Amino acid sequence: MTWDVLSIIGTIAFAVSGAIIAMEEEYDILGVYILGIVTAFGGGAIRNLLLGVPMSALWEQGMLFQIALLSMTAVFLFPHNLLKHWNKWGNFFDAIGLAAFAIQGALFAAKMGHPLSASIVAAVLTGSGGGIIRDLLAGRKPTVLKEEIYAVWAIIAGGAVGLGIAKSPFELYSLCVIIVVLRMCSYMYSWSLPIKSLGVNKRNTSL
Fold it and tell me: Apex CA 88: angle with CA 85 and CA 91, to 5°?
């Protein structure tokens, strides 16, 4: 039951973030729904494809789809009212979604008997794949690959599950809390990974 609640929170957070970015880019209502759905379910779809799971399994999440649609509709109809709360709590809910989805993705791979590498990839794709697709469709550089430590926490979750460090419900819930705390710390204190620039100036094409 707890995992269901975490999945709902994560789905709402990811769907809302996709809808907000679509509205920032001035997409129409169809674009808002498409970007929100892709953000919430895109990572899981890619994960299923790579693990050999039938794509039809994605449509079994009927309740989550309905919750995502309702969340996006609320954002579209009442953007200013909801944005106040999103700016305050959005990153916390997003961190919960990252942790819950990453752990679920890793468990998915582990239960299918896949090796450690598959658990890590499944965790990263499930936890951050939707956000990457969202940014690409919005014409932006994926923030999870450039500005913020995000996918790293999914890697840690996938590694802990794949190595068997987290097996029991207590261990999995503890891992979830740890990932949420790490994600929030990386956001609040602006942690970032090292960046190495080649220092190549863009060619001036102006006449």
Answer: 110
CA distance 39 to 34: 9
pLDDT for the residue numbered 205: 47
| Residue 55 CB neighbours (<10 A) | 9
92 alpha-carbon distance from chain centroid: 12
- Which residue stretches of the chain are H helix? 2-24, 29-51, 62-77, 79-111, 116-137, 143-146, 151-162, 169-188
User: In which residue are the tokens 């039809």 written?
Assistant: 56
The pLDDT tens digits for 105-148 are 999 999 999 999 999 999 999 999 999 999 999 999 888 887 67
Written as six digits, the tokens of 95 are 């961190």
3-class DSSP assignment, residue 147: coil
**What 3-state DSSP class applies to 47?**
helix
Closest CA to 110 of 150, 152, 160: 160
Indicate the helix (H) or strand (E) that contains 179.
Answer: helix 169-188
**Per-residue buried b or exposed e for 140-168, using 16+ beta carbons within 10 Å of the residue's own CB:** eebebeeebbbbbbbbbbbbbbbeeebee
Report which DSSP code applies to 205: -
- Joined together, the tokens standing for residue 128 give 């951050």
DSSP one-letter code for 61: -
Radius of gyration (Cα) for the chain, nearest Å?
A: 17
